[in-house]
Amino acid sequence: MQPTSPTKVALVTGSGRRRVGNAVAVALAERGYAIVLHYHRSADEAQQTVRELEARGARAVALRADVAEEGDVQRLFAETLARFGRLDALVTAAAVWESRPLAEVTAAEVQRQFAVNALGTFLCCREAGRIMVAQSEGGAIVTIGDWACRRPYRHYAAYFISKGTIPTMTRMLAVELAAENPRVRVNCILPGPVMPPADLSQAEVQGAIAGTLLKRPGTPQNIAQAALFLIENDYVTGVCLPVDGGRTIG
Hints:
Elements: E1 9-13, H1 20-30, E2 34-39, H2 43-55, E3 60-64, H3 70-84, E4 89-92, H4 107-133, E5 139-144, H5 157-163, H6 166-180, E6 184-191, H7 202-210, H8 220-232, E7 240-243
Parallel strand pairs: 1-2, 1-4, 2-3, 4-5, 5-6, 6-7
Helix pairs in contact: 1-8, 3-4, 4-5, 4-6
């Protein structure tokens, strides 16, 4: 396959399902990016988004990978290059988020969530970094952490262990990649209550909203707006930006 060369290309992991990653991908498409929608199991939803984006005149493709598997991640980025010839933005929205009382958390569960949330983020950033440092224009990486790693709540031990690595990883990558190409930037978004999981009780949802200063839930589009800012502002790197309605200090 001969690569094509649109003005800009963005890969968003975890963008198959209609959640935060999908909103980010749609926002980037509206900015003129060619979009690689990454999915693991949500093939039908990812393909539906591709059709919708193409109907609006955007260029898009859906590619499957298990971000916890190094070979899968390498193939994902190799296919992105084969199709589009470059990579200008990466947003790492792929994650697992599961509840379990601390006494019931197994080593296998910690390892699985760490493999997706921490190792998966690292593997994708490493591959994107390799591409971006070789481009004169560099590129922008946006990781997705969680505001609550600073104020963790109960029953998500495996999740917080894995997500807690993201801010440190972001700063490390910003330093490492800028040393190779100062046009490569890495930043992080720390979402608040923007799209609670379906299994969260109504009391938990209302409690999270009540803890914000703005007293209302956010939306995936709020995260997409932050991602656009971090991708487009070329003098911001190594930053972890809460998008949480003031939940961190509420």
